[in-house]
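so my prof wants the structure for this chain in the tokens format not the other one, which i didnt know existed until like an hour ago. anyway here's the sequence
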Amino acid sequence: MNNPAITIYHNPACGTSRNVLALIRNGGVEPAIVEYLKTPPGRGQLVGLIAALGMPVRSVLRRKGTPYDDLQLDDPKWTDDQLIDFMVAHPILMNRPIVVTPLGTRLCRPSELVLDILPSPQLAPFAKEDGEPVIDAQGRRV
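here's what i got, hopefully its the right format
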């Protein structure tokens, strides 16, 4: 069933993001999918997401495969507002996947963290793309 109450900020090129989307679907739900590299959240939406995560802004930054090092974002001189401006300018800096459900908002790394905020039980066994089992035949976490 389609459930617009669940949103995933998704990068289809990311294995973790694909696993999280598959776990959501394994609960019988089709979430709203925001491919944030194609349709990045605006500054206000990004600020709201970070606040809902309850994480420091720096914890939402992605380093690997981004301009993080070129921009010297590990320098403590950058304020949270400046770091958010960098994420708005370079959406690839936003770590993923971020999932929003009625039960909370999480940066789902590792992918099974999404299970903590999904309102629906898992309907079938599930293994990550690399073969690591996550859900058993009874729908329970492994």
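also thought this was worth mentioning. The chain has a mean pLDDT of 95.
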